[in-house]
Amino acid sequence: TGYAKDTAYRISRQAWRRHFAVSVQSMDQADKWSVFTATHPVIFVCSTTGQGEEPDNMRKFWRFLLRKSIPHDALSGLSFAVFGLGDSSYQKFNFPAKRLYRRLQQLGGTPIVGRGDGDDQHYLGLDGALDPWLQQLWAALLDRYPLPKPIVPDSVAPDPSCNIAFADGNDDDAVLNANQAVLAAGTHLARLVSSDRMTAADHFQDVRHFRFELEDPDDAPSWSPGDCAVLRPENLASDVDAFLEQMHWTDRADRPLEISPRSDSIIPEWIPRRTTLRWLCTAYFDIMAVPRRSFFEMLYYFSSSADEKERLYDFTTSEGQDELQTYCMRPRRTILEVLDDLPGSRVPLDYIFDVFPEIAERSFSISSASAATPGQVELTVAIVNYKTIMQKPRVGVCTKWLLNMAPGQMVGLRFASGTMALPDSQTPVIMVGPGTGIAAFMSFIRDRIIDSATANYLFFGCRSEHKDFLHHRQLHQWVDQGVLRLFCAFSRDQDEKVYVQQRIREQGDLLWSLIAEQHAVVFVSGNANQMPDDVRQAFIDVAAAHGVDDATEYVQQMTKTGRYQEECWY
User: Fold this and answer.
1) Residues 134-143 pLDDT 10s
2) What pLDDT shows up at residue 176?
3) Among 357, 22, 350, CA closest to 159
4) Which residues are CB-contacts of 151 (< 8 A; sequence separation ≥ 6)?
5) Which of 244, 273, 495, 520 lies in disulfide reach of 428, CB 3.0 to 4.6 Å?
């Protein structure tokens, strides 16, 4: 989501004000030797992915720290701090940060302050824990390193990350070259083949089946069942035009400009150093994001309106966070809408990379199987569209981009490992996937059919058999072929609501036979609100009904040994 990066740069700006020399890097980018020999403090900001997993840009560093060959006192000279970003509604809340904190101590590191646990469930979001933790951090650091001179006041803007200047000339070739971006490492070109609505036209939720074909399937890696396709969406032309007009950049939008980053720049390598404002606003800046506190902190410096400046300052203080939640977070007000509210606050070109966030990549479970169709990537995607107190409905940046994509359009995608792993073909699998949670299981079943594995049991739930029964034709075909047993819960098709956890209890004898006698593996995927807890309780009830004294511990042991796996999201 970009929260860890945003937090790291917020800490960096506060360190700059206290005259620390600061370098911000992802953990996997950092030179491991420099960490092990560091004589200066190292601050780790650590997010959480999947079910308590380390984020992609931390995994290499984490695997290195786990090496048994590392001496137990290897980090005896290291002073460190760890702040975790997570959500306490998940069972493995902030596990990566907790594991990292413990491992650094095991290797002899000395914590500067106790671990901080940011919680998205806090009524102020992650800042609810971050603000007091930062106060403790700076108090401890300034006790060790007395300030050589006064703290740089909040009224002084930090230096920009780069210099931006318009290039000489404005010919068509220059504009064309300015909009050529290099694909990020590991990204492959794919062509959209189709985008079919899977739910009924009068159903409130639009769920789509997207099919992509890789332009060069021989060059693309095979993916495993449960893996994800990662897409970087773009803003729609109409939104970009509105943003350019708000920023008074329309007349310069297509002029080539040159970006000269500083040595510690935050600008990714795949961004062309010669480009245009229109390209940047289309492909890089998330102008439709709900802005975070750091956005208002930076915008404050450039406001020419006294009233707006006062309001922006209030949004940056700890005391003003409730007001910021009411104004921005709860109604999901976008950057475009905020700028419309604040006509006296505009950003100088040199600061655009410091103020506007990067469009975050989106991950979708792949529904196709590499073993069956190696050049074809299928996705099952719910279109994000909902209402708040704002006049316009809130629409997801990525799903809006996908929805407006024409067949034949090329996109860049890369593959990322999922958090669920299939057992061997002889082991039965029990899959619980309400709604779009079925996406990964389509890949599971397709892959297992290739291996002649027929012990596949799927519990699917939705509102109505005739409204949002996703992939129903393919599922019924597999049932007819004898390679799948399907149990459905259509919650709104009768007076009393029925959910997948009830179907699980109804099939308790079958499930217990599979789990206890055939060592089946259980997979749960879907919305994380209440479903995962309800499903887990259903399996606990099944175990208890079959004589297990401590059924909760039994299911917990299944989790620890990989026989009960969850991949859920909000």
Assistant:
1) 999 999 999 9
2) 47
3) 350
4) 17, 18
5) 520
Q: Is the pLDDT of residue 264 over 90?
A: no
**CA 362 and chain centroid, separation:** 6
AA letter at 23: S
Q: What is the pTM of this model?
A: 0.87
The count of residues in the chain is 570
Contact 381, 367 (CB under 8 A): no
Determine the residue type at 232: R
Give the tens place of pLDDT for each residue, 312-336.
Answer: 999 999 889 999 999 999 999 999 9
CA 290, CA 292: separation in Å to the nearest integer?
7
E strands within 40-148? Answer: 42-46, 79-86, 110-111, 116-119
Instruction: Read off the tokens for 515.
Output: 């789990």
Residues 6+ apart with CB under 8 A from 361: 230, 231, 232
Side-chain half-sphere of 296: how many Cα atoms within 13 Å?
Answer: 27
Q: Which residues of 53-77 are buried (b: 16+ CB within 10 A; e: fewer)?
A: bbbeebbebbeebeeeeeeeebbee
Mean pLDDT over 446-467 rounds to 97
